[in-house]
Design goal:
The complex is a heterodimer of chains A (424) and B (175). Chain A has 424 residues and is α/β, with parallel strands linked by helices. Chain A has helices at 8-17, 41-50, 75-91, 103-109, 141-150, 175-186, 200-205, 208-217, 232-240, 304-314, 332-341, 343-350, 400-409, and strands spanning 27-31, 34-37, 62-64, 95-96, 118-121, 135-138, 152-156, 159-166, 194-199, 225-228, 258-263, 270-272, 280-282, 293-296, 324-327, 353-354, 375-378, 394-397. Chain A folds into two domains: 11-262, Aconitase, domain 3 (2-Layer Sandwich); 270-417, Aconitase, domain 3 (2-Layer Sandwich), CATH 3.30.499. Classes of the chains: A alpha/beta (424), B alpha/beta (175). Bound molecules: iron/sulfur cluster (SF4). Iron/sulfur cluster binds at residues 68, 102-103, 123, 125, 298-299, 359, 362-363, 380-381 of chain A.
Amino acid sequence: MAGSPQTMAGKVLARTSGRDDLSPGDFITARIDVAMLHEAFAICAIQMKAAGIEKVWDPDKVIVILDHFFPAPSERHAQGHQAVRSLVEQLGITHFLGHEGICHQVLTERGLVRPGELVVGTDSHSTTYGALGAAGAGIGTTDMTYVLATGELWMQVPATIRFELIGEPGPGVTAKDIVLHIAGTYGVDVGQYRAIEFGGPVAARLGQSSRLTMANMGTELGAKFAMFEADAVTSAYLAERGVTAGGFGPDPGCEYEAVYEVDVSPLTPQIALPHSPGNVRSVAELEGTKVDQAFLGSCTNARADDLAIAAEVLRGRRVSPDTRLIVTPASRQVALDAARSGAIETLLEAGASITAPGCGACPGGHNGVLAGGEVCISSTNRNFRGRMGSPDAEVYLASPASVAAAAIEGRITDPRKYWKGRIQ
Amino acid sequence: MTSRERRLVFEGRVWVLGDDVNTDELAPFQTIGKSWEDARVTLLPSRPELPGLVEAGDLLVAGKNFGCGSSREMAVTNLQKLGFAGVVAESFARIFFRNCVANAFPALACPGVRGSVEEGSRLTMDLGAGSLSNAQGRLPLEPAPYSEHLLEILRAGGLMALLKEPGNGPVGGPT
Ligand code: SF4
């Protein structure tokens, strides 16, 4: 190879731009491998047609799904879905995933994203695909319209920073706690204009679901991409989905802008206070804070293993009458798995409300929007002012175990009282 | 004036905001689909008086990580609708910056700008030259450079305008 050793991001962009001499800061035009659109598809398709273009560049590479507002909470949203369905038909989009769940969850659980691919999505948390070794980035609708028409997009080559995760996570400490700790320690802009690689012995041991949680939160670190090496864990996950994929990682000797070593051994359960994912403390410091709502949902933490942890915490216990627990599985498949495992039954017995899969309350859309003055503990990724409803509501971000524990007491509490499990 | 000569120099009165202004402040989710009149009064809750005071051609100066959060493009187009002619920030969140380029909304990242500019003063941003100046002359700051390709998009009036230009459509449809 002619070029110098590249990080994972560098390798993806070198391949997709046809250049092997890339350096951070270079502007390139990249060819997109997968374009993911949720409800924004209607805007993009209409905009594309208004520009006089009647065909998408490759209907096989475009994936459309309805997740933010399904089932439609209003007539206007229903009309939006109607528009999406009819445009999908007109433009011959092959991968229309209907309302199977949250976009990032459904694409990964169906094996539609592979290691080393360049994926763009009309959703900021498209960094999630980095859990599979893909370079996933969120873009706006106009950028996406350009992609639909041409299959190309300008990009600036990011420098890469690497988090080396070492040590041994203690009982009750999850991937969410690790990534919140990183946001709290290094700041919500540590990854700005940059690609992140999560590596080291802890990353290598993490299962796919934990990797998805951390790559998802890469967006809250400001990153363009947030990637794990595709290894045997990735290959096994994809093989279960009928996809054969080899490994994908950085070139030996590639250059990082910075390498941060994060020892996870001393970590306790973490929580982000209103109104920033970087406003992080240990859960113990918030012990006793009253919560009106506990929300277990979103592309960050609403997979089958997350629901299983919540069920373990709540088995034989009741949700406090002072609060409410809303559980929104990340996808229909997740809901099915959790139904079969008995987790859904346990959660219902404990007093949880289970909603249809999708984004639900995460972006303040429906199924759990907050009133002014209310406090919510949430397994989601973002707690900006007004994110889940009223600008006068307060949202705390934490792990599924912490959310379930708070639901029992109606107050924030250290989840290790109820759950001392070890994450995978 | 052809679109290719669209100017890249903007002069205006400055409003100053802080760090980490996010997309839920620039485009609250609850306002999506609402009329502009209903939406505009809810923008920038940390400076609720501001939407009523901005005049066409004003410039925005902000701290670091401006526009962090969602990919929603209204975060950019709402600023355009309020009348802002451009924004200079210590740094931008990446999707927001992309959306600025796509909508031909001049956005310049410039470390040190917040300490160098006062609210109410006048500022000139020159994207072509990559410089900032006030009445006294050029400020000793170094804005991040634009590539020729990005300037091209801005001169064209945004990505959609570029797409409509002859020869810029899909190269031959799906192959
Ligand atoms: S679950 Fe929340 S963060 Fe994830 S895609 Fe939906 S709205 Fe965005």
